[in-house]
Design brief:
The protein contains six helices and 37 strands. By secondary structure, it is mainly beta. Strand 19 and strand 20 form a beta hairpin. Helix 2 packs antiparallel against helix 4.
Length: 573
């Protein structure tokens, strides 16, 4: 009788230890008994449960006696179950007798009871895993979040239905062991990871923008390297796993080149640089676990995928990795396929992740929702006209973009290789007799030259595609014959786009180019008109005027007449 009481007490301890699921629901059992599973607020998945009867017996006064196998155990698996339970026992203990496939249900129950497993201990979880591996196909009851009925007195294992959360945003519950003889309530304890994507929005012309600003949108020049950051936060239940992974599935728009390399860190520990080639991997150690980051084959339609895996030493559960940040940073070059204006160049990421703590490997996966950012770029369009507004051909324009420098290791300011000082550009333009306002190009600033091209269909329209916000100088570098040069101007291009989306759409809301250009957010075009005045005809003094031309003309006419008359007289003779 004492042994029976002890077995029952241990079962109750295991039941409390293992009753950690994720779902706000109730699993109801027949005979008026209900196991209520309280859902964790962070769990968004809809679970569907099933119950298996491990041990049958008589329940009286809170005691389980006459223990036999329930129909939820596949007795052909008893040999493996015996091996798993024996591995948890101390063979030097008094009265130790190894379990075999022929051992009775009572013998198994007695061996489990003598493990003295504490609440929610690793040993208790291993018992549940061992029993879960020996389940038959016979379910004592199935149901959904509202309950499972048809159960009588006994000892049960409750679990999520197989494949019910495959490729969904959810995680399977840890196995629940429960003696059923009264209504009980258990609290699920499972979670899923999260992921977000950000882009650094930097204005090349603004020297005060030294800090990195990670946002949901940005604008850049075509040809720029655009910095991105992916951040995943592991589940709060990683400690339930022996193996765990998250796989970043990243999808870039055609306007961005695939990155060449990645920087990966886990809980602040940086791994070696990772090259973007499928099969390439780097490794490290975090919180005693082996960590590997590997470039794997991306899912269909995606650009690249990086799998970050964790494995406990010698099959141990993972510790110290709950709710930890995994950060991946990389640069992608904005290319000539980039969309100008709206809808921009969207990029998104989602995670595949380990979602079954009851599995011996990490092959079963869930999937998070996508998180998206967007990159914008714009174009300028100059309409060249005469004073009356009619088209004027033969001109040429150049944009000069102001760029800020960066500090090197020696504290020196370094500018892009293709940038020139404003004073040097002034000197070049002066040699070409181009008109420049004194303040247009600052002597202490650097600029990059952007050649505007005339359109093939209309050579009075000049465009430049692929600019971002910033400070520009527009210069007429080729002046049509007979016309005066347009004086160069400073143009401040400004744009407003969604910085932190939340529930809002990612979009470009404003685009301006000062007094010179009018912005269109849909086309991303900054349009302006530049008129040229024709050269003036000015009066002069001291010349001989037009009289001499009249005199000479008269003399020429008289002379021709004389010659003609003389010729006719000669012919008549």
């Amino acid at each position: 009788m004492k042994r029976t009481k002890r077995i029952f007490a241990i079962f109750m301890t295991l039941a409390l230890a293992m009753s950690m699921l994720i779902v706000s629901s109730a699993v109801s059992f027949a005979d008026g008994y209900t196991v209520t599973i309280q859902k964790d607020p962070s769990d968004k998945a809809t679970h569907s449960y099933e119950a298996y009867k491990i041990f049958a017996g008589d329940l009286k006064d809170g005691k389980l006696s006459n223990i036999t196998w329930g129909n939820g155990i596949d007795q052909s698996q008893l040999g493996d179950l015996a091996t798993a339970i024996n591995a948890l026992r101390d063979p030097s203990a008094t009265g130790y007798k190894a379990l075999t496939a022929d051992s009775s249900a009572s013998d198994f129950a007695d061996a489990i009871a003598k493990l003295n497993a504490e609440d929610d201990s690793a040993t208790a979880q291993k018992v549940a895993s061992a029993l879960g591996a020996a389940l038959s196909s016979t379910k004592a009851g199935t149901g959904s979040a509202t309950g499972v009925s048809g159960l009588d007195n006994g000892y049960y294992l409750v679990k999520d239905q197989a494949d019910s959360l495959a490729d969904k945003d959810g995680a399977y519950t840890r196995f629940v062991l429960q003696v059923v003889g009264a209504d009980v309530t258990v609290q699920e304890k499972a979670s899923v990871p999260s992921v977000e994507k950000k882009v650094d929005d930097k204005n090349d012309s603004n020297t005060s923008e030294d800090a990195t600003t990670w946002e949901d949108s940005a604008d850049y020049d075509i040809g720029d390297a655009v910095p991105f950051k992916l951040t995943a936060t592991t589940a709060s239940t990683v400690h339930d796993y022996t193996k765990y992974h998250v796989t970043f599935q990243d999808k870039q728009s055609p306007g961005l080149n695939a990155p060449a390399k990645f920087n990966v860190s886990v809980d602040g520990t940086s791994l070696p640089e990772l090259t973007n080639t499928v099969g390439q991997k780097v490794s490290g150690t975090v919180s005693g676990a082996a960590v590997t980051a590997e470039v794997v084959t991306a899912a269909s339609g995606n650009t690249f995928a990086i799998k970050v895996s964790f494995e406990g030493a010698n099959g141990a559960k993972l510790a110290g990795l709950d709710s930890k940040a995994i950060v991946i940073t990389y640069d992608s070059v904005l290319n000539s396929d980039a969309e100008i204006g709206m809808p921009g160049n969207p990029n998104e990421v989602y995670l595949n992740y380990s979602n079954n703590p009851n599995s011996t490997d990490d092959s079963e996966e869930g999937k998070t929702p996508e998180d998206k950012v967007i990159v914008f770029t714009y174009k300028t369009e100059v309409n060249k006209t005469k004073e009356d507004g009619s088209k004027l051909t033969g001109a040429g324009f150049t944009l000069y973009k102001k760029v800020m420098g960066t500090k090197n290791a020696d504290g020196e300011t370094v500018y892009p290789a293709n940038a020139k000082a404003g004073s040097a550009i002034k000197a070049e333009l002066a040699e070409r007799n181009a008109s420049i306002e004194a303040s247009a190009l600052e002597n202490n600033s650097y600029y990059i030259k952007l050649e505007m091209a005339a359109t093939a269909s209309d050579t009075s329209i000049f465009t430049y595609e692929g600019i971002d916000d910033g400070t520009y100088v527009i210069v007429e570098t080729t002046i049509p014959d007979g016309y005066n040069a347009f004086k160069s101007e400073v143009v401040e291009v400004t744009a407003t786009h969604t910085q932190d989306a939340g529930e809002k759409p990612l979009e470009l809301t404003e685009l301006n180019g000062g007094d010179r250009f009018t912005g269109n957010v849909t086309t991303g075009t900054l349009t302006g008109t530049i008129k040229n005045k024709s050269g003036a005809t000015l009066p002069s003094t001291g010349g001989i005027g037009t009289i001499i031309f009249y005199v000479l003309g008269s003399l020429l006419v008289v002379g021709c007449g004389i010659v003609l008359i003389s010729k006719r007289r000669m012919e008549s003779r």
